[in-house]
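Hi support team,

I'm opening this ticket because the web form for multi-chain structure prediction keeps timing out on my end. I have pasted the exact lines I submitted so you can reproduce it. The total is 282 residues across two entries, so I didn't expect it to be a heavy job. Is there a limit I'm missing, or should I split the entries? Thanks in advance, R.K.
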Amino acid sequence: MKRLFSSLALGTAAILAPLYAQDLIKSIDWEKLAPKAKETVNVTLDGSMLKLASGFLSANDPDQSNAKELISGLNGIYVRSLKFDKPGEYSFAEIEKAVSTLKGTKWNKIVDVNGKDEKSGVYIQSNGQKILGLIVVAAEPTELTVVNIDGAIDPARVRELSGKFGIPKIDIDTKKSLKK
Amino acid sequence: MNRFEDQLREAMRREDPPAGFTDRVMRRIQEESRPKVVRMPVMRWLSMAAAACLLLSAGAWRYEQYRGEKARDQLLLALEITGEKIALTQQKVDSISQRTIP
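Hello R.K., no limit was hit. The queue was backed up. Here is the completed structure from your submission:
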């Protein structure tokens, strides 16, 4: 019986985890901020889109092959990123307030850097054995990025992929319409 | 001569048309003035339907290719940004540690 309850609790946490993460993205008014940004990135890939994307990753390219393996346990990837011309285009307090909504939830802060005008944090949600979700918040004077990865992922492996695809981050997908 | 005249008169005798003759003539005129339906042979229909199916399938395949390539590009971009931000945060932590721990 005890085991059943703990399984139920873990299952509920796994279901609720992405909800909290999605709430973090939703709690920031991207629609309001997007017009002020010189470049925007809005990536919303749910399970079916990830599956579709996975089919188009090259098996011959080792990095894309790694990416394919990395996303095999994921339910969704959501990225919002804005780059501004000058500092002060978004409210730093608003971001801090949004991030504070993660307190008291199943999200654990594993890295946190707080500066005068910057805030970076990495949060994970785990069941004790594996990571069930990852949130990255990077609030810099002229750039604001929130990443939510829903599903089993190893942050170290994501970091390894950094710079491997040769994607100029800002030149691709500079959509001006950010939807929550 | 009289006999010939009688025969001629008999042949030229005024005779009323049978009942409904006028209606039948008018109906025929109306039918002929109506545009005729051009009937295409079945094979022509089939080949046109096959061509349409082929065109639709090619369009659907191309659209799926486009969606897939777009999703792949978005995925790679998302992983790139995530990796970059994690690395950047780690760098900040490392630089703070170096400054605070002699």
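A quick check on our side: Chain A touches chain B at residues 41, 43, 45, 49-50, 52-57, 64, 67, 70-71, 77, 79, 81, 111, 113, 120-122, 134, 136, 138, 145, 147, 149, 155, 158-165, 167, 169, 172-173 (CB under 8 Å). Let us know if the file doesn't open in your viewer.
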